[in-house]
Write a structure and sequence with these properties.
By secondary structure, the chain is mainly α. It is 76% helix and 0% strand.
Amino acid sequence: MEQTAFDDPAYRAAAVDLLGVLAYGELTAFERMAEDAKLAPTLNDKAELAALATTEFGHFQQLRDRLVVLGVDPMDAMTPFVTPLDAFHDHTAPSDWLEGLVKAYVGDGLANDFYREIASFVDAETRALVLEVFVDSGQAEFIVDRVRAAIEEDPKLGGRLALWGRRLVGEALSQAQRIAADRDSLAALLAGSVDRPGLDLAAIGRMFTRLTEAHTARMTALGLQA
């Protein structure tokens, strides 16, 4: 029988952890966006955010189904990440509609970029699924339109939302570091092994440069100072 990467217990644990954290992240994103839709100032805004929430739930289902194919209970795979992800959302609960939009665009965007980076170290099938889940469908463009329009109407909003965006990136990076530190399998995935190259210090530096540049581009798109 042909061997696969999943025959290595260490690799299997890392891939399951990656799929587990992504699945719970998508499930909470769905839940949060559905809740934030209640704050929408218009019916159209409510419908737009509800559509984004539906997309997130579809991503959760894809990740859940992949775990089932691997013979893993999706609930068991997600459980280790409930506490850190819930803590992140508790620390970054938006106070209004606009903060919720910025969080969905900037905070989730940074987390997605980080996990896309990790996906370059997994098998082709898992990597394809992760990249498919995080592909930009263009739906979030309505967030850019709403935030820019709000700042144009009230320029003072720009400063408050920029500070909020900076806080989100700090919290998101701290959360990612905590998860990587707490889960040896994910740390090992990034570090590599004898037959599978990982990230050295220079590569880690380049990765964080890419993450920072993508964050700055998102903030700029919203009309905010990074």
